[in-house]
Amino acid sequence: MDFVINNWMLFAVAIGSGALLLWPMVQGGVAGGLSAPQAVQLINREKAVVVDVCEAEEFAQGHIGGARNVPLNQLEQRLPEVVKNKALPVLLVCASGARANRALAVAKKLGYEKAQVLAGGLKSWKDANLPLEKA
After folding, report:
1. Which helix (H) or strand (E) holds 126?
2. How many CA atoms lie within 13 Å of 72's alpha carbon, on the beta-carbon side?
3. What is the pLDDT of residue 82?
């Protein structure tokens, strides 16, 4: 016990460094999302429907090929008409991933259990040198 008391700073550093090592795992579990290569596999293998939740102007500047534009503020009303089959995987995308994460909660509430988010949004798609379409 004397060792612990005399070396409390070493224990504090050890606990702090352990917490910092675990932080990405904890953060990934909350934010999550698919990487760009995983998203491509989901689109190609499972015929995922890509739903871009950006505004129309952003969508026109560049989007994933075949994506359907449903702005976040219209998602609850329009998602059931855009993706009729709730068994299909839905890939939610926006510019950075923030709006898509909010859209994920809406999609899950509507019954789209296979809905997922592209981590990092279109930025990660571009960083992976994957193609974009422009309207």
Report:
1. helix 121-127
2. 16
3. 94
